[in-house]
Design goal:
The structure holds two protein chains of two kinds.
Chain A (H helix, E strand, L loop, with lengths): L32 H18 L13 E6 L5 H12 L3 E6 L7 H14 L4 E6 L4 H8 L3 E7 L5 H14 L7 E5 L6 H12 L3 E5 L18 E4 L2 H5 L4 E4 L4 H5 L6 H8 L3 H6 L4 E3 L12 H4 L6 H19 L10
Parallel strand pairs in A: 1-2, 1-3, 3-4, 5-6, 5-8, 6-7, 8-9
Helix pairs in contact in A: 1-5, 1-12, 2-12, 3-4, 5-6, 5-12
Chain B lengths: L4 E8 L1 H18 L13 E6 L2 H17 L4 E5 L30 E9 L3 H13 L4 E9 L11 E5 L6 E6 L8 E7 L11
Parallel strand pairs in B: 2-3, 2-4, 4-5, 5-6
Antiparallel strand pairs in B: 1-8, 7-8
The chains are: A alpha/beta, B alpha/beta.
Chain lengths: 332, 200
């Protein structure tokens, strides 16, 4: 018998198992397919906890997380907060109204305060792209991006992926269409990176004014295409993600009216009838009758509420996988 | 084994393991005695296999008990990773595996099955995990190897073999369901330095 051999493990804590190669979650652009899969698989286990009698595990006891929201957000903040509480972390909410913030300077000051309060992890939402990255340079804490401008919203894309993974056998060759305001959407960018990393093809669809020129070049491998016709985006499509239309985009003159938007890019019941396997997703909150017809929102193939449930599970997984990793961290 | 393992001794071969499991299946059957004071019928008993190898051991025990007595015990799968106490001292996070217990553990008589008993910390976390799922009537603990060196006041009710070990040694239970060999080995392990994290 040879002295050293196989790679199986007696104990799941043995070295050699997959782990995240990142200390922070700033975006999915640099996350590998293996890392994304690890997060999704871990999220599935945490989702089971949410269905139990006692919906709490002691995993993150002693870890303090601050939810630093410079932009108004109800659901993402509640989802993170719930995820933190379900893991027994201590949480602090730090909501700063946009009006009172003169960004760069205040962010740095806030970062100094966080440092002084001995906080382990920071969940940050900010209107400026790169704000979470900036924070990593100011503080020792683990930074999780909860949405930074039009850059990335990684946990949203991860929860979208988990929702898809529950319904489809594989991402390889899957056709996903993202429909709406691509230009201003961090959700679209994070999904673009993550979906293509896992082998899916992505079609971006929307008015010309709301799709950045050349965005299909952002990811290598030719997996991304752009169309301005909804019918084309839905042809052969497995999953359609509608993005929320912000009313101020219309006021800025980027499209003529909400009614016209709905007629050209809104998903209606007839589309579901034409495409009997099509799954509908939306990051919420939905403008009924704009991105999705009201009957589509309530349709059994719309999985919007599954996305919400998966959001808590995915955030638990991300917190778990990033928390407490040694970085000069003392054993405790 | 692990790439860094050096085998010191084989503690059990496939036949030894087979005999041990037969004996332990008998011991579980003896536990099921409705006539005894505080005794319970077979349908109130269940096996809980601990991820990963405890699950396969529990399945084998279930099959043996079926063969001996015609009794079909319920079987659950437990992963206690979320309840571990060494979260902040490990270099890498353990992978969270599935917990799947398709019955209510409350008022049940459970036999918790694991491969190796060492510090007792995994058993402690498993007990906490079970208590969060309900209130079992009793929990018995079964292990193939008790290697000593306990750090907590925990003991096993059914032990395949007691093997005194020293720190730096590991006991590897290998099962044909998931490994390329079957048996139990004592190895000496030189842990590699955990790799540093790649910065963004």
């Amino acid at each position: 018998m040879a002295d050293t051999l196989d790679t199986a493990h007696t104990d799941p804590t043995e070295p050699g198992l997959p782990a995240l190669q990142h200390r922070h979650l700033l975006g999915l652009a640099t996350y590998s397919a293996a890392e994304i899969r690890l997060i999704l698989e871990t999220a599935r286990q945490f989702r089971d906890v949410l269905g139990r009698r006692i919906k709490r595990v002691p995993t993150l006891r002693g870890i303090t997380v601050v939810n630093l929201f410079f932009e108004p957000s109800t659901r993402t903040r509640i989802s993170f907060e719930l995820a933190e509480k379900r893991l027994s972390a201590d949480t602090v909410n730090f909501s700063v109204s946009t009006s009172s913030v003169s960004k760069g300077e205040t962010l740095k000051d806030t970062a100094r305060n966080i440092e002084a309060m001995k906080i382990d992890m920071v969940v940050v939402r900010h209107k400026s792209p790169g704000a979470p990255h900036f924070l990593t340079q100011c503080v020792d804490a683990v930074i999780i991006n909860a949405g930074d401008g039009a850059h990335e919203h990684p946990t949203q894309a991860l929860l979208d992926l988990l929702t898809i993974a529950d319904l489809k056998p594989s991402f390889e060759g899957l056709n996903v269409s993202i429909i709406g305001d691509i230009t201003h959407s961090r959700v679209a960018r994070s999904n673009l990176y993550a979906l293509t990393a896992l082998g899916a093809h992505v079609t971006l669809c929307g008015p010309r004014t709301l799709i950045p020129y050349g965005i299909e070049e952002m990811v290598e491998g030719g997996r991304v295409r752009v169309t301005h016709r909804l019918e084309e985006a839905l042809e052969g499509c497995d999953v359609a993600m509608a993005l929320r239309i912000q009313l101020e985009r219309q006021e800025a003159g980027l499209f003529p009216s909400l009614r016209e938007y709905h007629e050209r890019f809104g998903i209606r019941l007839e589309h579901l009838e034409q495409h009997p396997d099509l799954i509908i997703m939306h990051p919420g909150p939905v403008n009924r009758g704009v991105e999705l017809a009201s009957e589509v929102v309530d349709h059994e193939r719309a999985v919007i509420l599954d996305q919400v449930t998966n959001g808590v599970a995915v955030r638990m997984a991300v917190l778990y996988l990033l928390a407490g990793l040694p970085d000069g961290e003392g054993a405790g | 084994m692990e790439p860094q393992d050096r085998i010191k001794a084989q503690l059990m071969d496939a036949r030894d393991l087979d005999r041990t499991l037969n004996r332990m299946a008998q011991q579980i059957v003896e536990l099921i005695d409705p006539a005894a004071p505080g005794g319970a019928s077979a349908d109130q008993f269940a096996l809980i296999g601990m991820q990963t190898r405890g699950v396969h051991l529990a399945r084998r025990l279930q099959a043996r008990i079926r063969a001996i007595e015609g009794i079909d015990l319920d079987l659950g799968v437990l992963d206690a990773t979320m309840y571990r106490d060494d979260f902040r001292v490990r270099m890498k996070h353990p992978v969270v595996r599935a917990t799947h217990i398709p019955f209510d553990v409350s008022r049940r008589h459970l036999v918790l099955v694991d491969d190796v008993l060492y510090t007792g910390r995994t058993a402690r976390s498993a007990l906490d995990a079970l208590m969060d799922l309900g209130r079992p009537a009793t929990v018995h603990f079964l292990v193939i190897v008790d290697r000593g060196l306990r750090e907590l006041p925990i003991t096993a009710d059914f032990v395949g073999r007691r093997v005194p070990t020293i720190p730096g040694e590991e006991v590897r239970v290998r099962l044909r369901e998931i490994d390329d060999r079957e048996g139990v080995w004592l190895v000496e392990t030189a842990r590699p330095q955990a790799p540093g994290r790649v910065p963004l």
